[in-house]
Amino acid sequence: MKIFILIISLFTSICCTAQDKLDFNLKPIDCEDKWVVFPSDLSGSYSYGFVYMDNQTGLTFDFAGTFKINSSGKFLISKKEADRTMKFRLQPNKSLVAIIPESYFAEFDISKTPDWLKAYQESENAADKLFRWAITYNIWNECAKGLTYLEKVKTIDPNYKGLKTEIAFSYNCQKQYGNAITVLKEAIKQTPDDAYAYKQLLYSQVYNNQLPDAIKTYYKIEKDITDKTYKSENAFNILCAFYSQNNLKKFNEWLNLTQVDKDERFKPYIEKFKQDLEKMNQGTPQKP
After folding, report:
1. CATH number of 127-280: 1.25.40.10, 1.10.10.10, 3.10.50.40, 2.40.128.50?
2. Pairing relation of β-strands 46-54 and 58-69?
């Protein structure tokens, strides 16, 4: 990984022999409070370190060093200097990592739990930390787990800022759109100018086969909500519903009305959708 390219003079080297296999079969989000290894780069160098949850930045990798494996199966370990701290926020990606077996701990000169971790675990049951965990799991598409943390936050503070919309995000992620709609209506009562909550509501309605309600929500947002951050995204979600219905007439009407194809983020998808619909509807009477 490019982010871990370092000058060799920053390291001290040691040797050890590989005994247990490194299995690259886990997502980083599943390795909280574990020592992990990332896949090797083109030079055959592996990066290793500790994965933990930072209350401010989310899932974080504390870089400890690199190693290579020679033809005899020995680890050639280059540890970073003890006085250097190198931490990286982990974003969702498709890379899989391997957990370092405890049988390697002595050879890597590491302990199961680093001394510095205690500072990050203080007040770990506080609502803000639980909420950060939940958001992180949701971002990584581990929404069922995210929801368990949100329920803990709800027990501590049912009016925690952003809680209801994040719960709805978890429900939407798990295709529980009806549950999401119920929670979002409660959220909107509390914060009637929340553009993000309305965006989530419109999404839930579209995928819960409530397209007329979604269109009403779209017009309400246009009329009453000052924040237009999600305007194109809202229009696009409704356009997708017309595409799913194979309704070229309504698709074109909505496209002409919203001009959502002017947004470069969605333009390529819209062009593809329109081509598909035109092919499927050649010689077919249009739906009303």
Report:
1. 1.25.40.10
2. antiparallel
